[in-house]
Amino acid sequence: MGGREKIITIAGKAELTAGDIHYLLSLAAPEEIKLLGELAYAVKKEHVSNRVYFRGLIEFSNICSKDCLYCGIRKSNYSPERFLMSRMEILDAAMFAQANRYGSVVLQSGERTDQAFIDFVCDIVSSIKTATQGKLGITLSCGEQSEETYRRFFEAGAHRYLLRIESSDRELYGMLHPQDRHHDFDARLNCLRLLKKTGFQLGTGVMVGLPFQAIEHLVGDLFFLKKIDADMVGLGPYIEHSQTPLYLFRDQLWPSQERLVMTLKMIAVLRIMMKDINIASATALQAIDGFGRERALKLGANIIMPNLSPKKHRKDYLLYEDKPCIEEEREECRDCLEIRVKLTGDEIGYDAWGDSRHFINRNHKPQPYV
Ligand code: SAH
Predict the structure, then answer these.
(1) Is 61 a pocket residue for ligand 1 (Cβ < 6 Å)?
(2) pLDDT at 113 over 50
(3) Is pTM beyond 0.90 here?
(4) CA of 321, closest atom in ligand 1
(5) Can you list the domains of the chain with their CATH numbers?
(6) Which mutation among 70, 77, 113, 244 tests ligand 1's pocket best, with the greatest number of atoms within 8 A of CB?
(7) Which of 141-150, 296-305, 359-368 has the least mean pLDDT?
């Protein structure tokens, strides 16, 4: 069987084997990668349509108690000025999302588990709900929390939660995090289970192109996402940050273009494997390629996250270096993304939550503003 037929055959299978996934992720000829992308885009169109949903991203605090070895806002990096946006600033960003018909916001922060922080997040979530008459969808991304906290977040009105597993391989996870009880693989896995149990639409994902990572790890990651039955996935390339310990291993990295192409192939294969989930086109893609996010939409992603964080804080929320758009105000992000999405030929789903079809299909009643 020639390359083209083999790719078409694998993409049409109900269940992909490890060998199939490995084959697709190893594709190197541009025309074969293009074919993979076209097949994945066809799956997207059929199962979740070519409507792309916006999630206004509010990076509301960089204060973090974790020390992840790859992350620019890790506790031990003393360079960023630590901030917590005020209630009014966050509400203002949410109202901007509403006024611009984004449909949803993502509230993301560093990780804190103290009571003051948890109360603050609950207050913000319920205030946004009240201020928008329940119309704005809310995703949280505030790290590992207790079951009780997740329940409080859910009851306050958040309905989606993002917590990347970062790498589903226990050993590799251990190499990316300090070896202590605050960075425990099993605890993270347990959080994913708790989030699901609480009733959240579950979002998770991994970084692609990490030091020590091989294609076999990525094959395992795709199986993991399927097994955990994620409703939403965010996959992004790893990008080194000079103020982190992992930077020491930068000579072992794949060149950034290869990390980008591998991320795009991962998105395409994931779309083929999990047809009705939401897949975010990660901002990190654009750090490597000016059109990285559009390329992801063209091969399966259907969610994009315009940044609503105030410009004054963006330089302090550098998870990785070369983060795009740190000089832009949110109006510019909006205009730029609208044009970019339209250029891909996709449509924008305004004023809608754009909930995961997978979540709806897997047993839940449609939400009022899906
Ligand atoms: N505290 C929250 C949010 C973390 S930041 C949480 O724990 O979930 C969101 C994501 O940024 C992380 O999950 C990680 O996958 C990504 N990230 C962090 N550092 C990165 C880097 N150097 N390159 C690419 N992605 C990175």
Answers:
(1) no
(2) yes
(3) yes
(4) 22
(5) 3-363 (3.20.20.70)
(6) 70
(7) 359-368
